[in-house]
Specification:
The protein has helices at about 45-55, 55-70, 120-150, 190-200, 210-220, 220-230; strands spanning about 5-10, 15-20, 25-30, 35-40, 80-85, 90-95, 105, 110-115, 155-160, 170, 175-180, 240. With about 240 residues, it is an alpha/beta fold. The protein has two domains: about 5-70, no CATH class; about 80-240, Zincin-like. The strands form three sheets. The protein has a five-stranded mixed β-sheet, with helices on one face. Strands 5-6-8-7 form a four-stranded mixed β-sheet, covered by helices on one side. A three-stranded mixed β-sheet has the order 9-11-10, covered by helices on one side. The relative contact order is 0.12.
């Protein structure tokens, strides 16, 4: 069955609508111009989609303004000297070329990147991202163990990957959590919030009032943490409801 795509206009906002084989509506606002997309279940009527869009007009406008006014991050070249984030703190990157195995060492205010001579930008990026991945793999289980006991749920596996549209996802059937590699640049409390968010999906799959009630119970400050997570500059700027 082909995917149905069309446009609707709500409050002078042009919205791209796509019918997919999904259970719930998904609304997102995309850089660089704040384009709006809605993914809807195949059988959902246009009137219901339009009503949903009308109810989210203020949210859409808010995030369009944030995206349009947001200062985009300067592309990184992985050269000396250059600022890089780790757990919400800015470090100065020091690149050292040597004839030995590549590695990364974190100091008080610097990230020491050791690479082979004549390494390319992509090779240096890969070394640093591999280090970011290792840090997240070591950090995430601490939060998962903590919240498994409090929430009475079980996470079978956590994996890390680059994601263009989400900070994390939860496969509720496999009880597997995926985390965006970019989270390694965020403050620790934002990482914990995101992990709890995904774990709550093991109790409630949808982002409904029951889901929000669980979040209020487990992390009362979750809305503030979400705001911090989305406002600290990285290359991730899409807004999703």
């Amino acid at each position: 069955m082909s995917i149905e795509q069309y446009k609707i206009v709500v409050s002078d906002i042009i919205i791209d609508v796509t019918h997919k084989r999904i259970k719930n509506l998904h609304l997102s606002v995309h850089p660089p111009l704040g384009s709006v997309r809605i993914s809807a279940p195949r059988r959902m009527k246009l009137e219901s989609i339009r009503s949903f869009a009308v109810s989210k007009v203020e949210w859409i406008k808010k995030h369009q303004k944030r995206i349009q006014n947001h200062r985009r991050e300067i592309p990184q070249e992985y050269l000396n000297p250059e600022n890089h984030l780790y757990l919400g703190k800015c470090y100065l990157l020091n690149v050292t070329e040597q004839n030995s195995h590549p590695k990364v060492i974190l100091n008080h205010d610097t990230i020491e990147l050791f690479t082979r001579k004549n390494s390319t930008k992509l090779q240096r990026q890969a070394i640093l991202e591999s280090w970011y991945r290792k840090q997240l793999i070591e950090l995430a289980p601490q939060f998962i163990d903590k919240w498994e006991k409090k929430m009475n749920v079980c996470v079978n596996e956590v994996r890390i990957k680059k994601m263009k549209t989400k900070w994390g996802t939860c496969n509720t059937k496999a009880k597997r959590i995926w985390l965006n590699l970019e989270l390694a640049k965020k403050p620790v409390h934002c990482i914990e919030y995101l992990i709890v968010h995904e774990m709550v999906h093991l109790l409630e799959r949808r982002h409904n009032e029951r889901f929000k009630a669980y979040m209020d119970m487990f992390i009362p400050q979750w809305k503030q943490y979400r705001k911090v997570l989305n406002n600290i500059s990285t290359n991730y700027e899409k807004s999703e409801y």
